[in-house]
Amino acid sequence: MLTERELESCYLGQFIPVHYHHNMLMDNRRMSGFKAAITHLVAPGAKVLELGGGTGVLSWFAAAQAEKVWCVEYNPDLVAEAKRFLAQNVNGERVEVIQGDAFEYLPPEPVDVVICEMIHVAMLREKQVQVIESFKQRYLEKFGGPLPLFIPEAMIMAVQPLQQDYCFEGYNAPIVQFQEPTFIQTGSVELAQPSVYSMLDFTQAVNPQIAWEGVFAIEHAGTVNALRFVTKNILAVNMQQSTTIDWLNHYLVLPLAEPVSVQAGDQLHVSLAYKAGGSIPSLQATMRAQHLHVVEAEWALQSKHLAVYA
């Protein structure tokens, strides 16, 4: 019988179709960002581990300078693809492709850099956080410190109230949407500036539970009927130049169950809570947007009731 984690993994991030990984190879922003970060952090002669290797391209970037790269992939179809592709590329022999579970695998010796790109916008679906935190614990138990460098090093996540057009040739359908960040989204009206709701730093212990509430200053009149989620991945930090090498995920736009009419100058209270690696509906179920004065009135009423029963 499958364990709860094994059952969940069938739906969340473990069996992404091969053609999806082919599309990732054609994502120029992703490819150039990771290549630059790996070139910056992998020193000549380094030992590198990639967890969730997919087609093997990130391991191949590392092999340009690394002495040895272990590329771990769970999906047997992708293992075969990675081996086939690496055999056609210079330095591909430096990469050992291993069919294995990223939650369990450890390299035969200490490594200098760990690459793990199990990243979905808002850190949903894929198990990036859980895989890295599990790896840290098992690595320290086997090898002791220090921990290797991680690519990516950190994530910054923000949320933004939108008025989103959900009319498709006259058909109203509030759906989940992914948006290309480099394009102008004509169907999206930004009603307030984005606000950072979480920062994950893999050099520290990362809690997969994410909860946030904040207040937005509304800039334009409209109807807040969706929240846009923005995820900026800090792939590497260049300390010498005080810069970062970044990769911005596609935006994720989620419809609100209860839209809110707003005017310029209003204050909008937004709250959300979910677990990294969880499903999109698990986040949607917690999303709330209300006028701040309504929330404050509810808080005052709750305080009054508590005082009565104290």
Automatic annotation (TrEMBL):
Single Gene Ontology BP annotation: methylation
GO MF annotation, one: methyltransferase activity
Domain of life the protein comes from: Bacteria
Keywords of the record: Methyltransferase, Transferase
Keyword Cytoplasm: no
Keyword Transferase assigned: yes
Pfam families linked to this entry: Methyltransf_25
Residue span(s) of domain Methyltransferase: 48-134
PANTHER family xrefs: PROTEIN ARGININE N-METHYLTRANSFERASE, PROTEIN ARGININE N-METHYLTRANSFERASE 3
Matching InterPro entries: Arg_MeTrfase, Methyltransf_25, SAM-dependent_MTases_sf
Name this polypeptide is given: Methyltransferase domain-containing protein
